[in-house]
Amino acid sequence: MRRAKWLGTLGLAALLVATCAPRLTAQDSPPDLLARLSVEDGYLAWDGLRVGMSLVQAERKIGVTLALDRNRDQPCPVWVANADFHGQSITVGFPTPKPGAKIQWIQVRFRGALVQAGANELVPALHSRLPEAVWVPPAEHPDLAEADDLQPDFTLEGKEPQALRLAPREWLVLSTRPCIG
Q: Among 63, 80, 127, 165, which is least packed by CB within 10 angstroms?
């Protein structure tokens, strides 16, 4: 008898939870996947770390001393440093190893929900965050549609010309335009 009463109470509780719990519907807005992306003081930024910020300012923002090393992967940026920044693995690039050198390149390697998101989620999120971003068709495929571009590039005007490259499920690069490579 006790068991039947307990099961009845448990069933009633389950029914209340099922009917009262909020449900996601098609009308609910999805999470803003690129909420950390912005333009600050005319420069592209990720979570407050922005292109044009000095090495010293970047170290203060990230909270660690950056160990710069020569970039062997590409000619621009010449100097790079890796760090963990608010749960994302980032690489920042500079033209020189001097304290006053300005960030010219930031790569954010995706973790968490960003790894799950494909181009069909990230590109609309990008346009929502930065409506001024203009897609640049790849030179080798000028007839390609933006929706079919697997690694889209975007340009933005600001204090200086800037670019953004998106590799869905992998990374995002914010850069001065000459350094996008």
A: 63
**Residue 18 clears pLDDT 80, i.e. is over it:** no
What is the DSSP code string of 89-103? EEEEEESSSSTTPBP
pLDDT of amino acid 113 = 86
In DSSP terms, 43 is beta-bridged to 40
Please give the Cα distance from 154 to 136 (Å, whole number): 6
DSSP string, 109-148: E--THHHH--HHHHHHHHHHH-TT-EEE--TT-TT--GGG
Report pLDDT digits (tens) over 57-67.
999 999 999 99
Cβ–Cβ < 8 Å for 136, 153: yes
Break the chain into its structural domains and give their ranges.
71-137+150-181
